[in-house]
Design brief:
heterodimer; A: five-stranded antiparallel sheet; 11 strands
Chain lengths: ~110, ~110
């Protein structure tokens, strides 16, 4: 039973445009969400996070939106750059539980 | 520089052999984790440790073992009981408190030949 779902295995976006990566979750007890970026043969690196008490968090070109009623979050990257080409993972945590529950990832390809 | 180090980056093992993957961190993090990544899948938790001398099974602990004798170190042993050991293994550490992110090592690609 996948509690965190990233339904798009891949996404292709023109350089300079907006990239929108989506993530859905089923567990309403999740209260903290994170986005990670991963290059091939490397470990994921933390990008941005959001607590369930917020609906938006912004950090430079990256913005995460959380819609609790829809159990949906999205990562917006504006403008998209070639270095953004990577796999993006969404992860969720419940309370003080140390475990992160991960989505399967979305491969973002930025076209020049 | 503070960070988390996994070694080796690539590892080959014969069927039936145990092999140990190293993970060291100097970030003074309490929590450490081992994940496995297979193609087209998210990260799956093998084991995690919140404190020295204590660790918990994750979702796919069968065929694996760990130890946490020191705060800085969390080695993972892939035993011969693990049926499909070929995978990319990732170690991570974190402060362990709610809301904090995990920091990952570079990963170890294990191939069983």
């Amino acid at each position: 039973d996948q509690q965190v779902k990233q339904n798009s295995p891949s996404l292709s976006v023109q350089e300079g445009r907006i990239s929108i990566l989506n993530c859905d979750y089923t567990n309403s007890m999740f209260d903290y969400f994170l986005w990670y970026k991963k290059y091939p043969a490397e470990g994921p690196t933390f990008l941005i996070s959001i607590s369930s008490i917020k609906d938006k968090n912004e950090d430079g070109r990256f913005t995460v939106f959380l819609n609790k009623s829809a159990k949906h979050l999205s990562l917006h990257i504006v403008p998209s750059q070639p270095g953004d080409s990577a796999v993006y993972f969404c992860a969720a945590r419940q309370g003080s539980n140390y475990q992160l529950i991960w989505g399967a990832g979305t491969k973002l390809i930025i076209k020049p | 520089d503070g960070g988390i180090t996994q070694s080796p980056k690539y590892l080959f093992r014969k069927e039936g052999q145990n092999v140990t993957l190293s993970c060291e961190q100097n970030l003074n993090h309490d929590a450490m984790y081992w994940y496995r990544q297979d193609p087209g899948q998210g990260l799956r938790l093998i084991y995690y440790s919140q404190i020295v001398n204590d660790f918990q099974k994750g979702d796919i602990a069968e065929g694996y073992s760990v130890s946490r004798e020191k705060k800085e170190s969390f080695p993972l042993t892939v035993t011969s009981a693990q049926k499909n050991p070929t995978a990319f293994y990732l170690c991570a550490s974190g402060k362990g408190s709610s809301g904090s992110e995990a920091f990952f090592g570079q990963g170890t690609r294990l191939t069983v030949v």
